[in-house]
Hints:
Among the domains are: 185-371, Cathepsin D, subunit A, domain 1 (Beta Barrel); 379-557, Acid Proteases (Cathepsin D, subunit A, domain 1), CATH 2.40.70. Helices cover 11% and strands 28% of the residues. A six-stranded antiparallel beta sheet has the order 5-19-18-33-34-20, with no helix packed on it. Strand 15 and strand 16 (307-321) form a beta hairpin. The relative contact order is 0.14.
Amino acid sequence: MDFDDERPQQQVTGVVIITLPPSDNPSFGKTITAFTLTNDVLPQSLTTQEPDQVLPTTRVVSSPPPSSQSPQLGFSFSGFFSENPRKLLGFLGVSLFALLLYSSCFSSTFVELKNSNDNDDDDKPQSFIFPLYHKLGAADLELKLGRFVDVVDKENLVVSINGGAMETKMVNKLVAANSIVMDSSATILPVRGNVYPDGLYFTYMLLGNPQRRYFLDIDTGSDLTWIQCDAPCSSCAKGANPLYKPTKVNIVASGDSMCMEVQKNQKPQICETCQQCDYEIEYADRSSSLGVLAKDKLHLVTPNGSITNLDVVFGCAYDQQGILLNTLSKTDGILGLSKAKVSLPSQLASKGIINNVVGHCLATDVASGGYMFLGDDFVPNWGMSWVPMLGSPLIEFYHTQLVKINYGSSSLSLGAKDSDKARVVFDSGSSYTYFTKQSYAELVSSLSEVSELGFIQDASDPTLPVCWRAPFPIRTIMDVKKYFKTLTLQFGSKWWIISKKFHIPPEGYLIISKGGNACLGILDGSNVHDGSTFILGDISLRGQLVVYDNEKQKIGWGPSGCGKPSRFKSLPFFEG
Length: 576
């Protein structure tokens, strides 16, 4: 068949549409056109590429067009849809359905597509990856959510500087039996740890000159990073490494801006003789840490191997009390990752080193701890569910709003002051998850259905408050997973189809005790805060990449094996 090469061509710029030939004359072939409705035409002479011409990146592939001898067989999209509005609506409906179907393939809740910039820029903020490690030999339950409190008897306190040497004076410890949390008044380092029997995940940092390695518990519920310190130390655990020993030049003055940030919510006191910035932190598990602020060199290695050295402020902690003395047996301190100005990510962001984004991925496999990162280079461009952070000038934790919670298909009460919604805190420093009193009671009641399957509650097991003995030997969670249901936390809307959902499978709330029982890793949180806050601890955060984006004020999550971080630059559908 002869084709007219001089026939004007449509200029096409966008989605692939396939037009089949008429059934009575299939010899005309089919036409594959890229997505744009246009009637603009260009003479062939204008489509010739000039040497410096930049062509669109969209490629159009088409079979030979119909012969000019049969103009009645020509096809126009805009004409077709304008004459057939129902078909246009049908086309749009099918396209929307296809998009939703595609989204569901990559996330159980929502797939976010965002722009990515692949251009290397030496001046752009960097990202750092930290490995996470298992903490062996520490089986204590941890609940951090630290807050700064007033230091008692400041004038006679603790560490004084005399010719560069440190000496300790008598400390009047603050005992807060009625302490309430949250009241109104990219270096590549892995993460190691587990929920049981170790109780937490930790990483390491290189600090000082010469640099020394320190193991730190990662804690998104703590503001200040601190290390056990020989100032000298009045109450320290035998950690993994020798105590940090400061000099006079390392001590932060009381008038420093970071000191003012640490003490901003304390009662105003005048201490003319103070030569350092004193602080005390209390945690929700009633443990505490007392110390002074110090400044030293932090050594970070970027993914491409370059080294960044910068001064950071941290706590020189010389007096630890409570459960901290047990959990510090294999670590040296705590890595504060909250959104407070004194936290490590906020300090790095204020210097332009990173964008203020924190992420962690806690592996479910006990042989692999996972990783955490600072900066936004390792935030996936797809497969993440995002919810807004709740803002509060007094609360630096990462929290958002929960609208519904289900165990299987059964709805549980939120048990909050506002029955329609509750707050949820994401806390990597807590070993287990905490529900409000009413929600916890209803969950335990719902779980009692396993007794019909032969499970017997074993009150003699001291591991956790609720443990079951199975009618068969249990080696791993997988042996009992099928007898329990998934918990679903719903955010944004009570309408299932448009809400964001955080799924907690049985392995996200059960542990196997040393006695071979299945124990519930969700606890009654009525004594944590005011009883109306849910806390998602490590047990429920495992197997998820969780991102705290302080730049855009949102929290995101997506399923992951947590084996190795990747830089996702496109959807898998488009990857070659």
